[in-house]
Specification:
Distance between the termini: 40 Å
Largest sheet: 6 strands, mixed
Mean pLDDT: 94
CATH class of the largest domain: Alpha Beta
Order of helices and strands: EHEHEHEHEHEHEHEEHHEH
Helix content: 25-40%
Structural class: alpha/beta
Radius of gyration: 19 Å
Number of helices: 10
CATH topology of the largest domain: Rossmann fold
Number of strands: 10
Shape: globular
Low-confidence stretches: none
Bound molecules: pyridoxal-5'-phosphate
Strand content: 15-25%
Amino acid sequence: MPVISTPHAFNESRLYVDLRSIFGRSLYLKCEGFNFAGSIKLKAAIEMVETAERRGVLTPDSILVESSSGNLGVALSMIAASKGYRFLCVTDSRCNLSARLLMEALGSQVHIISDLDPTRGFLGARIDYVRALCDSDDRYVWLSQYTNPGNWRAHYRRTGPEIARQFPRLDVLFIGAGTTGTLMGCARYFREWHRPVRIVAVDSAGSVTFGGKPGRRMIPGLGMSIRPPLLDESYVDEVIRVEEAETIRACHRLARRGFLFGGSTGTVVSGAMDWLDRHRTPGLTAVAIAPDLGERYLDTIYQTAWLQDLYGDHILDFDEVTADSL
Ligand SMILES: Cc1ncc(COP(=O)(O)O)c(C=O)c1O
């Protein structure tokens, strides 16, 4: 019986969904949404905060500040509340309403940037705001998830070994790329492992992370409007880019079987299924990471009016995989 006294002490790490009956190909989806912050970002948040505490950067009168599209902000809000720090989250107008309300419920302050930087997008504008704040008052402590090695180290120490323990014969791992903390931590871990694992990064179309032109992206979590400073492409074997329409279809296909996941899971699953369709290697052991669950997206990805406005009336017309078609 797990009994805890701090919210970050619990994090389900052994739960996988086998997607064969839903998509027709075997893929084990590691569920990272079962903790009190509701996402994989809890791992990066606790690693970065506790490293800053050990180094004496965080003191009782510090004010944590971070730029986040939602999930890291919720995780930091939870940790700040538990440890007694103040926290200010700088986000933008694409942040989910529920993420903002969660941060406020946990006692954090939320600042929303509504004007994008002409060349560096919303992210550039958010970072400029955080920098100006830190320059104005030295009580502000910016953990900087985009550059902090604690972000990837969390996954090198935890997510990579968790997967390796359950799948000692793993062949391919699909990982969504946002800040690339999850990607770089897992990729570094498996580079040192006892057998080769193919590391496939999944990015959203319109992101500039692996090159290419910036484009409209409405689903938070994956993709960047600047190149992620943590990214070292020498650890990445392949990159798949997924259109948002495909992300949405994958999310709805999962939801119709009772699994309500977040947008980035739809992206990773769609990219992984496409890769598995192209490779068709018998006996392959494949794992993908699901960063969060779907409740934070009820007013966007799971709302028909929002979908039709952005992607057209036929966005949800797709064929189901049935037992007969497998
Ligand atoms: C829902 C979701 N998916 C994926 C990611 C990407 O993870 P990373 O920043 O480790 O690349 C994030 C990051 O915030 C996220 O919130």
